[in-house]
Amino acid sequence: MGAVRGATKRRRQPESDESGAVLAPLEGDSLAGWINAVAEQQGKELKTLLREFHVRKLGTLSMAEIRLSEPVARRIAKLTGVDESTLHAMTLARYAGNALPHLPLTPWVDGAALSQWSKGAWFHGALARWCPQCLRANDRRWPLRWKLPWSFACVEHGKFLVSACQACQANVYSDLDGVPPARCGSRVEDRLYRYGIDERCGFPLPMCRAVPVTDEAVLTLQRRVNDWLEGTPAQDDRQLVSLAAVLIPLVSPSMLRRGDPVVLYALRSTHAPAARWDGALWTDPLRVAAAVCAAGHMLRRPRSAAGIAGEIADLRIIDQRHVPWRMDVLQWAYGPALRPNPIIDELVRLQVVIPRGSECL
C-alpha cells in the first residue's frame, strides 16, 4: 500500500520547468507558426503542446494569436524561456490601433465584441499568402504580417506574395488553430465522377513560383506600409495607408496608367474578384498592391481630401463604373476606412460610397 501511495505522489508532482532548448522565435514570427515549429521540434502533437501551454483555456490557438492573456503568456514563458514581451509581439495585438482598429481586449471572454469586430474588420487570417523563398529559407515559418492584407510583396526577395495554390488554383487556408499548412489541403475532385478522383491536392506550398516585382516603386511602397504596421510611420505613410484603404474596393484601371505590368494586368483582368464587400478584394495581394500604387500616385502633390475624392469619382466614370460602392456600416466604423477619414467622407458626399445602415451612426 505504501508503494502505491508513493507512486501516486510521484504522478502528482508539479511539471518540470526544464523543457530543453526550445526553438527561438524568428524576427516577425507568428505565435501559431512558432508554437507549431516547437511542437515539431519536440516531437509532440500540437494539441498536446497547447494543453501544456494552457492555450486551450482561451479556446483555439488562432484565438490566442489575437491576444494572449497574461496567465497563459506567463505559462508559456515559464516552459520555454521566451520572455512575455516577445510572446505578445507574436500576436495580432501588435497591430492594434492601426491595421486592426478596435481589436477586442479579451476576445476569449467578450464573444459579442469579437463577433462585431470580425464582421466589420477586414482581417482574414484564415486565408494564406506567402513568399515561397522565405518558406524555404526559414523552414516553413510564416511571419505574422502575412496574415494582414497589407502584405502584398516580399521586399527581401523582390517577389509578389502568392495567394493561391499553383497546382489546383484554389485558395489556401490555415486550420482552426491558425497554423498555415505545409501543403495545399484543397480537395480535388472529378465533379462528373468519371474517374473517381476525390483527394487532397497536397502540392508543397514552398515550391510555388512567385512572380518577380519589376517596378521598384512597388517595393518602396511595401516598405512604407511595413513601417506603418510596425508603428514607426512618417505622416506621409499614414496618408498613404488611409487613401489606399479607401481605394482597395474602388481602384480602377484609369487610376494606374503606368507601373508594374503584373499589377496592371491583375487590375484589368476579367478574372479579378467580383466587386462585393465580402472580403474577396481585400485578400488579393495584387489588388492591394494596385490600390497602394494608385494612392502613392495621387499623393505625389499635396491636395485636399475633396480634390482627391473628386479625382477618384472622375476616374471611375472614365471606366464606366457608375454604380456606387455600398459599404456595410460596420465596415465604415470598424474597417480600414475608420473615421475620421476625410477622404471617405467626401466620397460619401459624392455618393461614390453609400454606407448601408448609416442612419444607425
Outline:
The chain is mainly alpha-helical and 361 residues long.
Give an overview of the whole structure.
40% of the residues lie in helices and 5% in strands. It contains 15 helices and 6 strands. Strands 1-2 form a two-stranded antiparallel sheet. Strands 3-4 form a two-stranded antiparallel ribbon. A two-stranded parallel ribbon has the order 5-6. The longest helix is centred in the middle third of the chain and has 14 residues, at 216-229. The termini are far apart.
Defining key terms:
361 residues; mainly alpha; two-stranded antiparallel sheet; two-stranded antiparallel ribbon; 15 helices; 40% helix; 5% strand; disordered N terminus
Rg of Cα set: 23 Å
Helix and strand element order: HHHHHHHHEEEEHHHHHEHHE
How many beta-strand runs?
6
Give the overall pLDDT as a whole number. 83
Which runs of at least 5 residues are low in confidence (pLDDT < 50)? Answer: 3-19, 273-278
**Main β-sheet, in a few words?**
2 strands, antiparallel
Strand residue percentage: under 5%
Neighbour order of strands in the largest sheet: 1-2
Strand-helix topology:
Layout: H1 2-11, H2 31-42, H3 46-52, H4 61-64, H5 70-80, H6 84-89, H7 111-120, H8 132-137, E1 153-154, E2 159-160, E3 187-189, E4 198-200, H9 216-229, H10 235-247, H11 261-268, H12 285-298, H13 305-318, E5 325-328, H14 329-334, H15 342-349, E6 353-356
Parallel strand pairs: 5-6
Antiparallel strand pairs: 1-2, 3-4
